[in-house]
Amino acid sequence: MYKTRARSFPVLMITLAFFVGLGWFVFNLATHGAEWVSLPQNGHLSENGALEHAGSIIDRNGVVLAHSAGGKRIYHEDPAVRTACVHVVGDNTVNITTAVQNLYRSELTGYHFAFGQGLPNEWKEGASIRLTLDSNMQTAACRALGDRKGAAVVYNYRTGEILCLASTPGFDPENKPEDIETNEAYDGAYLNRAISSAYPPGSTFKLVTAAEALESIPGAEKITYHCEAEEDIGGAPVTCYAAFGDVDFKHALMYSCNLYFAHLAVDLGGDKMTARAQRCGFNACRSFDRITTAKSVYDVSQASVNDLAWSGVGQYTVLETPLNMAIRAAAIADGGTPMMPYLVEEIRTADGSVQKAQHTRGSSMMSPATADTLKEMMDYTVANFYDKSVFSDVLDVCAKTGTAEVGEAGEPHGWITGFCTSEEAPFAFAVIVEHGESGYGSAVPVASAILKAWEEEQKTN
Amino acid sequence: MEIIAFALRMAAPLIAGLLVILCYVSLHSGRREEKALIVLQDEQHDLVYPVLYWENSIGRSRSSDVHLEDPTVSRDHAVLLRREAGWLITDTGSRSGVLVNGQPTQGRTPVGVGDKITLGSTHLVLRRTSDISGQSAQRSTLRYISAAVLEALLLLYLSMITVSAALTTGSNTPGLMGGIFCAVTVVFCFVSVKLLHRHSFEQETLALLITGTGIILSSVHNERQCMVQLIAAGIGICFFCFMLWFLEVPDRVVKWHLIISILSLLLLAAALIFGKVQNGAKNWISLGPVSVQPSEFVKICYVFVGASTLDVLQTKKNLTEFIIVSALTVGLLAYMSDFGTALIFFCTFLIIAFMRSGDIRTVILALTGAGLGALMILSVKPYIADRFAAWGHVWEYADSSGYQQVHSLIYSASGGLFGVGYSEGYLQYLFASENDLVFCLLCEEAGCLLALICAVIIGGFVLYARGAATRSRSTFYSISACAAGGLLVIQTALNVFGVVDILPLTGVTFPFLSYGGSSMVACWGLLAFMKAADERTYSHYKRLKKTKPEEAPAAAA
Ligand SMILES: [Zn+2]
Predict the structure, then answer these.
(1) pLDDT digits (tens, 9 = 90+) for B306-357
(2) Mean pLDDT computed over A346-355
(3) CB A394, CB A455: distance < 8 Å
(4) Which residues place a Cβ less than 5 A from the ion ligand 1?
(5) Cα A171 from Cα A178, distance rounded (Å)
(6) Is B469 close to A41, i.e. CB distance below 8 A?
C-alpha cells in the first residue's frame, strides 16, 4: 500500500496547483479589485442611486462641485458652473467615461478593499476628492466658447495642476436635456474634447518643425526664404494665405509662413520629423489620473513629398489633442521638459487617510536652448504681430495661433497655444474652437477670458 | 436590519472556518498511528518484518511493503491482506509459489498466528505484535470530535446564513428552505451516529456546509431551483448511505467491475442517443418531468472501475480494460461537446492509471493520445476553438465571449470579504449564474471568504484522502478516494478558474454548491468513496461483534 500512496503524488500536485490558483485569484482580487469595481459594467456603481451616498468633489478653492445629501446627488448651485464642469466631474450616469465621478467612483461610493460594496448604507462613507481645477476659469472658458464646440486646457507648468479642462457642448447634470442624443447641438456632449478628441493642429505644429530644425540644421535661425504665397513642392502646391516676401526664421513663425516650414519639413525628412513629433507626444496616448487621452497622430510613412511638406505645418493627416498641445507649450515655457498635468489633488477617505497627487516631469521634448529660442520667438510674435494686451493686461503671454484646414468639413478650426511667463501665473494653455475660422479671431478671446477670470479671482482674494 | 444581516454575513465565514478546522483536526487526530498490526518473523535469519497496512505486498521489489532480500523470491511475490475474517495471503503470480505450513496455496488462503508462510527459500511466521519484544502494540483508540459538536456548529452556521438571507430578501423562502435543510442534517446526523453507529461525521459536515450554502443562495434567487437542490441533496444523502453500504466489502465491489464498466458506457450511449443539447453540450436525458445528466453518474462508475484491491492490482498488471473504458468515455464526452467533463475524466484517468501502475509511459502515452484527439477534434470542428478564444483576454472580449468572466470578476471584487448581501448582487441576472458562475455569485453576495472556504474544503478532501491512503482497509479505498477527491478538485478548479479567467470557461459545476440535481447526487456519491477510505467508517462492526476477548487487529481466523 505504501507504493499506492507514493504514486498518488499527482493528486497532491493537482491539489497544490488548485490552492496556488486560488491564491492567484485572491492576489488578483487584492491588487486589481478596486480597478475592476470602478468599471462602468459594475451595476453597483452604474445603476441609478449608486451615488446616493457618495463623497464630495471640490475644486482647488474649496468650491463644492458635487456632493450627496438626503439620498441625492447634488451638483453646484449655478447651472453655468454645473454645465461647465460636467465633463470633469461627471453626471449620475457613466456616459462621460473620463469624468472623475466615473473613474473614481469606487472611492467616492466607499468601496473598501475588505468590505467591497458590502457595507450597510448607514456605514458607507465615500472618499472626498479635491481637484486642481479652478471652477471660475473653467466656467469662463465655457462661457467664452458659448454655442461653439471646442475645448480649452490650462495648466500650471511648474506644478502640473490642471486649472481648466473645458469642453463644449456640455449639459446640466441636474437637468439633462431630453434631446441630448438627437439634437446636433449636443453632438459629442459626453466627450471631453480637451482630452478625448484629436484635431489637425495647423500652424501650432510649426513649433515642432521649428524645434527639429533648430536642433538638426546648424544655423537654422539664419535661413531665409522668399515667400510668393504659393509654390510647388513635390508636384503639388503649398500655399500661404499671403505673400510674405523675404522672411527669416523668426518672422516666418510670426507671419506663420507655411512655405517656410514646409521646406524645413522636406529638408529634415520624414524620419527626423517623426522622431521629433514622437518626442513631443505624438503617436501615443497620454495617461494621468486614470484618464487615457485620445492619441495624437503624426504618421508620414505613406506620405508623398507634398504630404510631408503639409505635415510640417500641421496639416496632412496630423492630429493632436488640446491637452498634448498644452503640454508642448509647457515644455517651451519650462526648459524643454514639461511637468505632466494632473487633475486629482487629493483623495480623502472616510477613515482619514489622504492620498496626495504625485508631481511628475515628462520626458524631454527639446533642449533647453531650443525651448528658450522658441519662447523668445513666441514672445516676439505676440508683441509684434498681435498685441500683448489681447490676452491680459497684467500677464505676459507668449503664444502661437493656428488655423487648421479641415477641407470639406467646413470652416477651419481656430487654435491658440502658449503660456504666461509671469511667475505668479505659470500657465501653459491650448484652446480650440471648432470651425472658428481663424485662431486669432476665435481662440484668442477664449484664452483671454480664462486669464481674465484668473485676474478677477486674484482681485477678490 | 441591514446591519444585523451584515453582522451575520461577517460571522458566518468565521463559524464556517472554525468548522473546517475542527473537522480536519478531528480527521487528523482520528487517524491510526502507523504502527505494526502484526509482524512476520524470519526465525532463520532472526529478522522481524512489521506489517503496517491492511494490504501488504511481499516481494523482492524495493518498494514492497515487506521487502525480502532473497533471490528466490519474486519481485511481487504475494499479498498479505487483512479482512473481517482475519489475515489472508494470496500468491500474485510468483515463480516459486506460496506455502502455508508447508501446504501449497491457491487463491486467498487464511493464515493465523503461528502459521508458517514459505516464499521461495524464506520462512516467515505470523506473530502478534505484543509477542515480539521491541515492538509496541497498536493502540486501537480512535479519537475524534463528536458528531454532535460538529452538527451543532453546522446548525449555527446554517441558521446564520438563513437569517441573513431572510433579512435582506424579506421573504419566507430562505427561512423555509433553510429550516427544511437543517432538519435534514439533524436526521442525517442522528441516523449516522445512532442507527449506523458511525462516530465520525467530519466529511459529511463539510459537504453539508457547502450544500447548505448553495441551497440558501438559490433560495433567494429562484424558489423552484432551490426545491430541486433540496430534493437532490436529500437523494444525494440517501445515495451516500447506499454507497457506503455497497463499498463495505471491497472484494464484493471488485467483482462488479465488468457490470459497472458496461453500465457506465451504456449511460453515455443513452445520453448520445436520447440526449438533448443544452448550452452547446448534448448531455441531458429527459425522463418525464426530470432531466438527468448521465455523465455525472458515469463519474461514480468510473471510479469504481478504476480502483481495485492490491492482490488484484498485482496479479492483473494490465490496464487494457480500464484504458478502453476511459478512452471510450472521454471520446464520447468530447463527441457530445462536453469538453469540461471530458477533461475531468481524462485527469481522473491519469490519476488512477498512475496509482495503479506507477508507469510514466502510460501517462505519456495517454497525454499524447489525448493531444492527438484534441487536434483531430479541432481540425474537424474548428469553430470549437472559438469557444475558448476569450481565455486570458477576457477584458478585450468584455462585450462578447468574455462577458461572463468580466462581470464575474467585477462582482467578485464588489463583494469584498463578506459580500453585499443575499440577493443584493447583480451577478444573479447573468446566464448560468447559479451553476457556472456560482463561485463568483457567492463571492459577491456572501463574500469571498466564504467562497474560498468552500473551495478549500474540496481541496482538503484530497489532502485527507491522500493522508489516509495507507491507513484505509484496502488499496481499493486508497485509489478510489484519491480519484474521487482528485476528480472533485479538478472539477472545482475548472469551475472557479474558468470564471475568473485562469483557465478556459468550460461550464462545469462546483461540487455541492452549483445548481444541478444530477451533479449534487453524484457529488455525494463521490464523497462516499472518501468516507469509505476512513478506517473508522466501518469500525462499528468490531464494536458490535464483541465476540473476541481482545480487539487487537491480530485476531486470527
Ligand atoms: Zn509664406
Answers:
(1) 888 888 877 776 777 788 888 888 888 888 878 888 889 888 988 888 888 8
(2) 84
(3) yes
(4) A 227, 240, 244, 257, 259
(5) 11
(6) no
